Amino acid sequence: MTVLEAINLWKVFGKTIALQNVTLGFDKGIYLLLGPNGSGKTTLLKLWAGLLKPSRGKVSVKGLNPWKNRADIMKFMSVEFEETVLPWWTSGKEYLRFVARQKDVKWSNVVELAELFKVTDYWDKIIRGYSSGMKKKIIILTALIGEPEILILDEPYTLLDKDSIQRLNQLLLNMLYTVETIVITSHIFTGIEEKANGVAILINGNLAFYATKDKLFVGKIKTYMCQTENPVVLAELLFSQGIRKIRIEEDTIYFESDKYVKLPNNVNCSLKIDVKRVYEDIVSGLK
Amino acid sequence: MKLGKIRLSLFSMMVLFLLLVIIQMYWIAVLDSGKPFGGRTSLSFGYGPLHKGAVLYSDHGYALLSRGDRLSIDISVSGAIPWQYYLVFVDLASSKTYSFNATYYSSRAPTPLFIAPTSSLYFYNLTIISGSNVSEYTINLKISGQQADRQNVIVRILLAGLTIIIITVIIEFFNRIIILKNRFIILLSWELRTLWIWIFYGITLCIYAIFYLSFSADIGRNPLVLLKSIAFCRKEDFFIIYTLLAASISVMLYTYQWEIKLDRTMDLLPLSRVKRFFIKLLLVFILLYLPIVVVSLLLYLIWLPNLIIGNPMLFFSIYSMEILYYLCIVLLIISFSLLPAIFVPRTSLALPIAALPSILLYMGVFQDIVDFDFKRYLIGYDPYMHIMVPRLDMVPSPLDLLYKVIIFFIIITLLSLFVYMYRENP
């Protein structure tokens, strides 16, 4: 059974069409939901979270209708939205304690996660005085606690520092042993996309692209990721072999090729899905 | 909350609300400043032939008096001179009897003034007997009173203070001791803290304590009620304040939380909307009704301890009828404010709309439609008159009214629940 599913889904707000005829399904693993601002990503997540009722079509979470079974679904699904409002009159600790009680989560588990994200340094203060980043960590923590089966994170990396992003990614990868499905929407490519099992791209409410990892790998042109101490030298070598699509990011080099490429022994390369390239190609192609 | 381009913070809203209440209090004070302490006059005619010793006039009533309150019954009798005057006062708490008899030879006579020796519920019986054979007579009756100690601000402050302390202790008890395991109470406590409802609570208590002890007697205010006793009188204006409170609390809990998207945060937890709806409703009810129950109980405890000790059954009957009376009113107010609070998506609109139906009811707009004089019920109901002399109580009993109010409340609640459950949370 598909864990998260949308079939011929439409969502209309007055005269604005937020989603039109989207058919999409996410199974087990990490999935990325990408798209420019206003493309309908958050609306789709809200439909899965049971906050909105579909105008037409169907959404389901493990076969359940989220609009009718929201409370039941929330027992095994955690959702975090970019603009989640926190009760500003209380402390972060008190709020997390409240959430933990409602989710039946042991307080020690919350403390463990809070320490990982360094939330314990400030969680006794009233939320009103938090910075945006501090609030963001509390919001993410509320989603992470309780070992959910499905985790939906809307722009989780926004406002987070580099250290916190790395910790979050590491945690998400560890959680894959217990969490069935993780859906992430993001504008920032932090490396988690390399582990994605599927990528969906929404443009203006339409599903512009959707492919699972397997389908991306069987494409004619393959993307390789190589790590080297001297990426410029490697880029020159690849160029000399007729490869033109080369991208360098710090000590990592990405290139596309549909034929055998001879590489030096000291260079460690692997086949990967270059989500960033896929996304940029689709968005630029539409422009 | 958005008012045009101005974004009002929660604190500003609270201040605004507080200002509204203060204006309301001032308005009531102004309205009341010119009111005399109550009195009643009546004219009784009789036609003969009546023999000597015939009872010309006899009636009884009940008066809840404070120590030092004065009650005078001024009578003039023409056509039946001489006439005999019998007046009996019985303190129902201690069963002490105070009586006065006299024979008068002029049409008008200086009748004695009764000064209540203790604060208590008094029964009085007035009888006028003819001293001659007459064929026709006229009796002019005037009852007036003077209140001694009822506007005592110290008592009000004491009441308000005691009430706040008691309620705080009760809530803290629930909050700290009981809640740890019970998720329902955790959520109730959470909602209570939400939007600093403590402030609402304080306001409710203070307002109630201040306005409850308003004893302008309603003798003469309602001419339809014959010989209505000097009453433990409430001002009908408290209804407006309660309406504003109910509308504000309902709108804060149902509309404002939704508008600022705090409701959505709660939607992401495994909490059913049905449960949250009823928790909020319970909170509105507690915030409006509990202060009444507590303050009225405290009022009796402070004001009439001798009634509670001396005649506990009577006290219990009066008190239970009184809280039933308020239950009807509170349920009605909540019913009117609930649906707009859930249905209207903007706080700035929902607040006046939620208050409007109750205000219209108060103004008697629906009187013909529902065939019920609500304002008269507000003013006229006396629990002790209802218990002691039901035939004299011209307004319906809360028991008669309660089932109708409950049916109305259930219908509105179900409608509101339906809207709340199927409200999107974008």
Q: How many domains make up the 3D coordinates of chain A? A: 2
**How large is the count of helical segments of chain B?**
14
Helix content of chain A: 25-40%
N-to-C CA distance of chain B: 16 Å
Q: Give me the oligomer status.
A: heterodimer
Query: Could you spell the SSE succession of chain A in H and E letters?
Result: EEEHEHEHHHEHEEEHEHEEEH
Biggest beta sheet attributes of chain B: 4 strands, antiparallel
Radius of gyration of CA atoms of chain A, rounded to a whole number: 21 Å
| Average pLDDT taken over every residue of chain B | 72
Strand order of the largest sheet of chain A: 5-6-7-3-8-9
Task: Count up the domains of chain B.
Answer: 2
Give the termini distance of chain A in whole angstroms.
Answer: 36 Å
Mean pLDDT of chain A: 86
Fill in the CATH topology of the largest domain in chain A: Rossmann fold
Helix-strand topology string of chain B: EEHEEEEEEEEHHHHHHHHHHHHH
Q: Write down the overall geometry of chain B.
A: elongated
- Roughly how many Å is the radius of gyration of chain B? 26 Å
Structural class of chain A: alpha/beta
Record the SSE blueprint.
The complex is a heterodimer of chains A (287) and B (426).
Chain A: E1 4-13, E2 16-26, E3 29-34, H1 41-48, E4 56-61, H2 70-73, E5 77-80, H3 92-103, H4 107-116, H5 132-144, E6 150-154, H6 162-175, E7 181-185, E8 198-203, E9 206-212, H7 213-217, E10 222-227, H8 231-240, E11 246-249, E12 252-257, E13 268-272, H9 275-286
Parallel strand pairs in A: 3-7, 3-8, 5-6, 6-7
Antiparallel strand pairs in A: 1-2, 1-4, 8-9, 10-12, 10-13, 11-12
Helix pairs in contact in A: 3-5
Chain B: E1 2-3, E2 6-7, H1 10-33, E3 39-50, E4 55-65, E5 70-78, E6 83-91, E7 97-104, E8 113-115, E9 120-130, E10 134-146, H2 153-178, H3 183-193, H4 197-212, H5 238-259, H6 262-267, H7 273-303, H8 305-310, H9 312-343, H10 347-362, H11 367-370, H12 374-380, H13 383-388, H14 398-421
Antiparallel strand pairs in B: 1-2, 3-10, 4-9, 5-8, 5-10, 6-7, 6-9
Helix pairs in contact in B: 1-5, 2-4, 2-7, 3-7, 4-5, 4-7, 5-7, 5-9, 5-10, 7-9, 9-10, 9-14
